[in-house]
Fold this sequence. Notes:
There is one protein chain. The chain is an alpha/beta fold. It contains 14 helices and 5 strands. Helix 4 packs antiparallel against helix 8 (114-127). The model has no long low-confidence stretch (mean pLDDT 86).
Amino acid sequence: MSALDGETKRKLREMNAGELxxxxxxxxxxxxxxxxFEDRVRLAVDDAYSAFTHAKVEGLIRRAGLxxxxxxxxxxDLLDERGLNRQLLAQLGTCSFVARQxxxxxxxxxxxGKSYLGCAIxxxxxxxxxxxxxxxxxDLEEAWAAAQDATxxxxxxxxxxxxxxxxxxxxxxxxxxxxxxxxMLLELMERRYGExxxxxxxxxxxxxxxxxxxxxxxxxxxxxxxxxNTTWVDTGTFNMREQTALATA
Length: 249
């Protein structure tokens, strides 16, 4: 493809078509010299689209705030030893549960890899160009407390966390929520119910949730908006932190 003049390049940049400009500039003249014009344009557009998509995915992953940004479902160690269901993890990796507005709970002992799995799911969502976000329950509570001190902060907080197509809440119920936090969680789960998907990473089995949520009407209502449309994944008792420490010792 012949070199573009400066004015054409300027127009492409002004239209935010920098990826296409770069693809045209870097197209291999030797390899493409015998191709028809339309094929050369198609190849340039394909290269530009690939660069655009990669940049978008990287941006989604960066903004998701993942605790483990390199988490990958394809690199889950000791699947059989940990009792993890390969087929179920592969299915979750397609992110079809997000399209169905379903939730996921990763439940298991300390160190069993719940946070890693939550981040791996969120990263897969980003790769599918789904807006995801990771937050620890203690950080969510801290952000909620700060939001209430600002004018309109509570509403802004709820709109923000309700808007994520996939929200990963790590360390779910590690501490017993305050009354204010329970009220917020009910409103947040109400806004997300049937519209988005939430991943919960927790040490606690479902039978313990009601008590940790205060054992009252808020607990009933919060659980009602979570448990009926949820895939439960038992991450077992295998301590992956200990295993990693032994492997690197």
